[in-house]
């Protein structure tokens, strides 16, 4: 494995190597910079003891999931000092020597700790301008033993992030007229998986030729995302790409495939997983931290039998969350959601 960071820091690179050049269509360059309508959810209001405040926040949350599959979360419970520390330890990991990082390379897709580059070197037709560290941090913490302080920081960050997600799932359940713990129970969130991914996108001399990550959706229910001072996330809305400039101290939240999987029965497909991508820049290294929250790996996810009938047939076949992840990770990121691969 030859990482992008090593490539950029080598003295031999004068231009983008041909194996990193991605084929792009005119649609890939259709941008919409009118970002003022991106939903913002106030976590304090969502968890407020004031019934009116909470009711309004739940309504806004439901609208965001239905209309966007994406929102910014402000006034959450994760301290900014901890978020800043996560960025620092993430950068410190990628600054380790090649030999130290390769100790955590892993061999299989579901290895609990995996350092790598691109997406899946076995299937990528073009390599992506990205190195990553991926760790399964719940139900059991898995994290590299170096650099110092990384493991402890991961533990605190993932624990606080999980509490935020649990409150969001309560609000989403209520927005659908369900009991607030419906998703928590149905998807076995207590023993569910929590995958923390730190992405490293080094500067690129010709960013228009490459992709950090191409258009894709996330597995799981919700993903919490934060980044350093450099932007790069774009979401697809109404056929155009919207560059996201997050509010200070906010989390970016996107709904995953298993939110859509669940909702296809409950809402006739109204709540969608959002298509998004990561672009790179010439200025500096972008660090992003995504935490995907999903069911337990062995949970069979499928339409609830009591909600399926002649007038409301199942759209997807039941599949374990483990097999769903393997299906996604073993296929190219080709603008298709993995849900399309299990449609009946």
TrEMBL record:
The entry's cellular-component GO terms read:
cytoplasm; nucleus
Gene Ontology MF terms: L-ascorbic acid binding; metal ion binding; oxidoreductase activity
SUPFAM superfamilies for this protein: Clavaminate synthase-like
Q: Where in this chain does the record put each Fe2OG dioxygenase domain?
A: 191-295
Pfam families from the entry?
2OG-FeII_Oxy, DIOX_N
Coiled-coil ranges per UniProt: none
Q: Which terms are listed as keywords in the entry?
A: Cytoplasm, Iron, Metal-binding, Nucleus, Oxidoreductase, Vitamin C
The entry's localization annotation reads: Cytoplasm; Nucleus
Q: Which family does it belong to?
A: Belongs to the iron/ascorbate-dependent oxidoreductase family.
What is the purpose of this protein?
Involved in the regulation of shoot development and salicylic acid (SA) homeostasis.
The identity of this protein, by name, is Protein DMR6-LIKE OXYGENASE 2-like isoform X1
Annotated organism of origin: Vigna radiata var. radiata
